[in-house]
């Protein structure tokens, strides 16, 4: 990813977009259905806080088809997100926003990744165009990276969650690979210091 600098020749920091399940917290094929089931991956909360404290704007972009499937409701999802945000805030960081798709794979929505609707919503809210403004989409699945790539985000795959399987899928674009969110954060903090 080319370095972009401002008029004072200071490296500008990209917007960071994070998938949730498998990147920030443990994932489950049976879905994460409650606040108690929502458990952060080692190092993920400190990683988000470190990025935030260093001046990166951090957003979460997550498919939550468990709502459409009736496994949990939006109130439970909100409680999970409040827990996640409180943990990050306890480390001195901030998640600026969370976009989620509550639809199932056959609902025909424009927000479910690999479609870029949630990312477009963030662009609209912060008045940015990620084909012009640097952004990185961090995910553990091909569809996460495809959604980011569709909007001009630089894709980054973490090997947690479904990442180890996803890395061997066929992609038609370049992406970076990191062991986990902590490794991504460390490399990103160093790159844009």
Automatic annotation (TrEMBL):
Active site, UniProt feature: 19, 21
Cofactor(s) named in the record: Mg(2+); Zn(2+)
EC number: 3.1.3.-
Recorded metabolic or biological pathway in which this protein acts: Nucleotide-sugar biosynthesis; ADP-L-glycero-beta-D-manno-heptose biosynthesis; ADP-L-glycero-beta-D-manno-heptose from D-glycero-beta-D-manno-heptose 7-phosphate: step 2/4
Enzyme class label: hydrolase
Site location (Stabilizes the phosphoryl group): 62, 113
GO function term, MF aspect, one: D-glycero-beta-D-manno-heptose 1,7-bisphosphate 7-phosphatase activity
Binding, Zn(2+): 101, 103, 109, 111
Site feature: Contributes to substrate recognition: 112
Entry keywords, A to Z: Carbohydrate metabolism, Cytoplasm, Hydrolase, Magnesium, Metal-binding, Zinc
GO biological processes: carbohydrate metabolic process
SUPFAM superfamilies: HAD-like
Database matches in Gene3D superfamilies: HAD superfamily/HAD-like
Binding, Mg(2+): 19, 21, 140
CDD domains cross-referenced by the UniProt entry: HAD_HisB-N (cd07503)
Gene Ontology CC, one term: cytoplasm
Cell location: Cytoplasm
Catalysed reactions, semicolon-separated: D-glycero-beta-D-manno-heptose 1,7-bisphosphate + H2O = D-glycero-beta-D-manno-heptose 1-phosphate + phosphate
Main location: cytoplasm
NCBIfam families given in the database record: HAD-SF-IIIA, Histidinol-ppas, PRK08942.1
Homology family: Belongs to the gmhB family.
Subunit structure: Monomer.
Protein's name according to its UniProt entry: D,D-heptose 1,7-bisphosphate phosphatase
Native source organism of the sequence: Marinomonas balearica
Organism taxonomic ancestry: Bacteria, Pseudomonadati, Pseudomonadota, Gammaproteobacteria, Oceanospirillales
């Amino acid at each position: 990813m080319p370095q972009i600098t401002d008029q004072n020749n200071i490296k500008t920091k990209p917007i960071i977009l994070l998938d949730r399940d498998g990147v920030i917290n443990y994932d489950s094929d049976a879905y994460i259905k409650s606040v108690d089931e929502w458990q952060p991956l080692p190092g993920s909360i400190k990683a988000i806080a470190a990025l935030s404290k260093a001046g990166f704007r951090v957003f979460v972009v997550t498919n939550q088809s468990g709502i459409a499937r009736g496994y949990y409701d939006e109130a439970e999802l909100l409680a999970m997100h409040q827990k996640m945000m409180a943990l990050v805030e306890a480390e001195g960081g901030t998640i600026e926003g969370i976009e989620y798709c509550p639809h199932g794979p056959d609902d025909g929505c424009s927000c479910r990744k690999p479609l870029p609707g949630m990312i477009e919503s963030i662009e609209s809210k912060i008045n940015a165009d990620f084909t012009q403004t640097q952004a990185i989409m961090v995910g553990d699945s091909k569809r996460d990276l495809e959604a980011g790539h569709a909007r001009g985000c630089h894709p980054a795959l973490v090997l947690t969650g479904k990442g180890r399987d996803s890395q061997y899928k066929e992609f038609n674009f370049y992406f970076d690979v990191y062991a986990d969110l902590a490794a991504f954060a460390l490399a990103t903090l160093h790159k844009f210091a």
